[in-house]
Specification:
The structure holds two protein chains of two kinds. Chain A is mainly α. Chain A folds into two domains: 68 residues, RNA polymerase sigma factor, region 2, helix turn helix motif (Rna Polymerase Sigma Factor, Chain: A), CATH 1.10.1740; 78 residues, Winged helix-like DNA-binding domain superfamily/Winged helix DNA-binding domain (Arc Repressor Mutant, subunit A, Orthogonal Bundle). Chain A contains seven helices and no strands. The mean pLDDT of chain A is 81. Chain B has a six-stranded antiparallel β-sheet, covered by helices on one side. In chain B, helix 2 packs across helix 3 and helix 5 crosses helix 6. Chain B is elongated. Classes of the chains: A mainly alpha, B alpha+beta.
Chain lengths: 167, 244
């Protein structure tokens, strides 16, 4: 038997907003984010028997959503625009004053990154996910996650830094 | 912990959080940062940058009504799934009913035709060679073919199964007419096994007209012969007890 109506309502109420934000940051599109979010809930409801620990519902939903996203863009992934290997040395110094980050500009920079760097960055800044949880989400060793995260943060800093007189 | 390691760790510090270092290492890290103004400034700038990025990352407006739309679709999909499941269950039940009906119909049509000749032949065999017929009957049921007493097959009447406490039990019946009486005495030999009844010691018993005698044989474990008779067994016995 599937989840009862009340349980579905509870699940959606508890996780819709954060899941939508994650979907938006992954896909960069409001329409895709809405579709991805609904599909993730639909799959989670259909497979709710697989969730052994209800306290891990959030991570489980995020994982389902990411898999759906990867599936939907599997043909597009080859044309990703930026290889972090080609970026070279990244600035290690944080700016003197807190940057004024425009969310739209941030999305533009995120879209430049390959998903393998974008996902740890998004999950990291959503704060609730530990390195271990991000590693589980991505089926990667924790060291790989930390390495990708450091490079992605460096790239983000470079791209979001205000233009200098030399630019 | 030295300054270089502390700077490296700061790159992985969580925005707004206490980090994921073990408590002892976290304490050493915090002490080092607190004691080094340049490092503290570096940590402050890192934290401010992370906080700004974290705020920007979360600044995604959920479209008005998106949650309600999703919820409505999910609930509608669930209702449709439940309906489909009910239809499937009803279809399966109807199919099962049809299957049972067909099976009953087939079983009905496969009933054997009554063979009058076979009925006559089986009885004839019992009349001509009653002991052989009884031995074959008992052996066919996995029972010792012989009876515990050497009953006189000249007095054999019939064999078959009869209910005993609601269970069908093989039974062989002998009859005798004592001299100078018009009564017909009988002995019925029930052959029971411990698969049908508990193998506790069964005592002999007597009612107004019948006596029950119980026989066992060490060579046939698990089998008990219950003889219900209206006259002393001598009347039906030819020789001494035997079991083959």
């Amino acid at each position: 038997m599937g989840l009862a109506g009340a349980a579905i309502r509870e699940l959606v109420e508890a996780h819709y907003d954060s899941l939508y934000r994650y979907a938006f940051r992954l896909s960069g599109s409001a329409a895709d984010a809405e579709d991805l979010t609904q599909d993730a809930f639909g799959k989670a409801i259909a497979r709710h028997g697989q969730l052994r620990d209800a306290t891990k519902a959030r991570g489980w939903l995020f994982r389902i959503l990411r898999n759906d996203y990867l599936h939907s863009v599997r043909d597009e992934r080859r044309r990703k625009v930026v290889s972090l290997e080609s970026v070279g040395e990244l600035p290690a110094e944080p700016p003197e004053s807190p940057p004024d980050v425009d969310p739209t500009r941030l999305q533009g920079v995120l879209n430049e990154l390959d998903e393998s760097f974008r996902t740890p960055l998004i999950l990291f800044y959503f704060e609730d996910f530990s390195y271990r949880e991000i590693a589980e989400q991505m089926d990667l060793p924790i060291g790989t996650v930390m390495s990708r995260l450091a490079r992605a943060k460096g790239y983000l800093r470079t791209r979001l830094a205000p233009p200098t007189a030399d630019d | 912990m030295d300054r270089t390691l502390a700077i490296a760790l700061l790159a992985f510090d969580r925005p707004g959080g206490a980090g994921e270092l073990p408590p002892a290492e976290r304490a050493a890290f915090d002490a080092l940062v607190a004691a080094d103004p340049a490092l503290a400034d570096y940590a402050r700038r890192r934290a401010a940058e992370d906080a700004a990025l974290s705020t920007a990352m979360a600044a995604v407006a959920v479209p008005p009504g998106a949650k309600s739309r999703a919820l409505g679709r999910l609930l509608a999909r669930r209702s449709a799934a439940l309906y489909r499941r009910r239809v499937t269950v009803a279809s399966l039940a109807a199919s099962a009913l049809l299957g049972v009906g067909l099976a009953l119909g087939v079983a009905h049509s496969l009933r054997p035709t009554l063979d009058a000749y076979r009925a006559a032949y089986d009885n004839e065999r019992a009349i001509e060679a009653p002991e052989l017929a009884v031995r074959a009957f008992l052996a066919g049921r996995g029972l010792p073919p012989g009876l515990p007493l050497d009953l006189d097959y000249a007095r054999y009447l019939e064999h078959g199964t009869q209910p005993l406490q609601g269970r069908d039990v093989p039974v062989v019946t002998f009859v005798a007419a004592p001299p100078n009486t018009n009564r017909l005495e009988f002995v019925k030999v029930y052959v029971v096994t411990d698969r049908q009844f508990k193998p506790d010691n069964v005592p002999a018993a007597q009612s107004s007209l019948c006596t029950t005698t119980v026989q066992t044989d060490a060579r046939a474990p698990g089998v008990t012969w219950v003889l219900v008779h209206t006259a002393p067994l001598d009347l039906f016995v030819k020789l001494q007890p035997r079991l083959q």
